[in-house]
Amino acid sequence: MVLEIKNVSKNFGGIHALRNVSFSIKQGEIYGLIGPNGAGKTTMFNLITNIFEPSSGEIVFNDENITGLKSHKITEKGICRTYQNIRLFSQMSALKNVMVGGHSRSSSGVFSSVFRTKAQRKEEQELEKNAEELLKLVGLFENKDLLAENLAYGQQRRLEIARALASKPKLLLLDEPAAGMNEKETDSLYDLIKIIQSKGITVLIIEHDMPLVMKLCDRIAVLNFGEKLAEGTPYEIQNNEAVIEAYLGKEEEEEIA
Ligand SMILES: Nc1ncnc2c1ncn2[C@@H]1O[C@H](COP(=O)(O)OP(=O)(O)OP(=O)(O)O)[C@@H](O)[C@H]1O
């Protein structure tokens, strides 16, 4: 197992954002985390990357207990994420944004360029080469010198993924990557995530776009009011009465309305 979530709970004051949630993700899987607004999905990402510590329970990554480890250590171990709200450096080029992502892995800091040694220059060149490769992967190489803020919305979301990949993750967490995308952008996002999987990277994705989730994911866990309601293949989830009642049925009603 790449990631094991073991009886994890998180309370914020009186709010039980997560209650005793467990699931495990296998190497190479695309695993979906779905559920209504406020179900605790982003909180789970925040616990895995230790923005917050769980109130109880354990998070194990490649057989190592990472609960409470500093966020940058977790990145070094090989977990990287994107955010629900785009968090790019808007005034930096696409290329530089990806290079910054790679710096979490390199020995020198981002702004330590005053006394640049030969080794640092070489490292910088390698970061740039790697960033260019990633921009090719996400289809943004031609836009590498554009400021992030001048990219279209779907392109910004792809740039975020490239930046996360720059830290060479073994596990990539994607928080609503298709939010705000049109159908064409969502289709190419599907292709991109499949390519990421084919490179041996395990993916955990939070997403509200159900056709995408059902097409993309190998397995899915459904959260509802902080608890795990169900887990299974897309087919099993789509046919689970409790899930239809709590979530999927409501999505359809919203679409009809
Ligand atoms: N930092 C925080 N402080 C207090 N309460 C929080 C905090 N973060 C999340 N919560 C609460 O925890 C619950 C779960 O929120 P969370 O953002 O994890 O849900 P979600 O499933 O990601 O929802 P959405 O689909 O809307 O993004 C909510 O009741 C939310 O208000």
UniProtKB/TrEMBL annotation:
GO annotation, biological process: D-alanine transmembrane transport; L-alanine transport; L-isoleucine import across plasma membrane; L-valine import across plasma membrane
Entry keyword ATP-binding: yes
InterPro entries hit by this protein: AAA+_ATPase (IPR003593), ABC_AA/LPS_Transport (IPR051120), ABC_transporter-like_ATP-bd (IPR003439), ABC_transporter-like_CS (IPR017871), BCA_ABC_TP_C (IPR032823), P-loop_NTPase (IPR027417)
Organism: Ureibacillus yapensis
Tagged with keyword Transport: yes
Name of the protein in its database record: ABC transporter ATP-binding protein
Pfam families in the cross-refs: ABC_tran (PF00005), BCA_ABC_TP_C (PF12399)
Keywords: ATP-binding, Coiled coil, Nucleotide-binding, Transport
GO CC terms, sorted: plasma membrane
